[in-house]
Design brief:
Order of helices and strands: HEHEHEHHEHHHHEEHHE
Shape: globular
Distance between the termini: 30 Å
Number of strands: 7
Structural class: alpha/beta
Number of helices: 11
Helix content: 40-55%
Oligomer: single chain
Length: 278
């Protein structure tokens, strides 16, 4: 898998100290509801919240067309393996025309829909909503963080001083199987801003990416440009593909209904569609 910064670069002493800080942040909160997407950030928070708070920690996975079925299944598997108190909650961001419009504030309305669901759950438990935001996330265009914070959510990884490399190192030290899982942002992130978010478009992206993963490529993005798809692969993966393998990737994406498929020579750049907003 593509892992990003090598977790081996983080000294064990620093990892242990960071985990102690995270435990302290969680203990101070007392009761928490963790927004659990199954990525390494939210997984670390959910795992550690369960470890230090037990039944006072509830993990909730938001289910909507923007969550790939494989990611939803992964959350269920982790929750069962770790013994988490866990439940799913349906969100309805697609009913919001502001979200559908896919302007630069799409993530704000997505997180607003998430908070609509989590706030009453947390209120019933007298708990605080926590999200797996790390320090590196603060440098990107993520208006959803403002939507969540404005309604009372907190970011214990940030407060405990975790960047992405430290998150992965901590997850690895704890033996969490997701420590090197590639980032898997919501499916709507594959649609350029200004392109309407629809169920059909999200489903088409999901089918295309699943078809490529079936070829053994775990880390990728299929950007949706109407009838055309642009496939982003890590440069080391792209450069290692023989012409026949590249053709197989193109055919896999075409099987999802795209008429034209390009392999982006610049490689995988997470969040690169945000550059249009700068």
């Amino acid at each position: 898998m593509s892992t990003g910064p090598a977790s081996a670069d983080v000294p064990a002493r620093a990892v242990d100290a960071a985990l102690d800080r995270l435990a302290g942040e969680l203990v101070a909160l007392g009761r928490v509801v963790v927004a659990f997407s199954g990525g390494v950030d939210s997984a670390l928070v959910a795992h550690q919240a369960h470890a230090v708070l037990g039944a006072d920690a509830l993990a909730v996975t938001a289910v909507s067309p923007s969550l790939a079925a494989a990611e939803r299944a992964g959350c269920a598997e982790l929750a069962a393996a770790w013994g988490l108190a866990w439940e799913e909650a349906a969100t309805d961001e697609l009913a919001d025309p502001r979200y559908q419009a896919n302007a630069g504030d799409r993530c704000y309305w997505c997180k607003s829909a998430l908070m609509d669901v989590l706030v009453p759950v947390a209120a019933a438990r007298r708990a605080t909503i926590v999200l797996g935001v790390n320090l590196d996330d603060l440098d990107d265009h993520r208006p959803g963080q403002d939507a969540a914070a404005g309604r009372g959510a907190v970011f214990p990884l940030v407060d405990a001083g975790f960047d992405k490399a430290l998150v992965r190192a901590a997850a690895r030290r704890l033996g969490l199987e997701v420590w090197d899982k590639p980032a898997a942002p919501c499916l709507a992130s594959r649609l350029p801003y200004g392109t309407e978010v629809t169920r059909d478009a999200l489903a088409q992206v999901e089918r295309a990416e699943a078809a490529v993963r079936a070829l053994g490529i775990a880390d990728l993005r299929v950007r949706h440009y109407g009838a055309r798809a642009r496939v982003e692969l890590p440069l080391d993966v792209l450069s290692g593909l023989e012409p026949q393998a590249q053709a197989a990737v193109v055919d896999a994406v075409r099987s999802a209904g795209f008429a034209e498929v390009d392999l982006d020579p610049a490689g995988l750049r997470s969040g690169n569609l945000n550059l249009a907003l700068r």
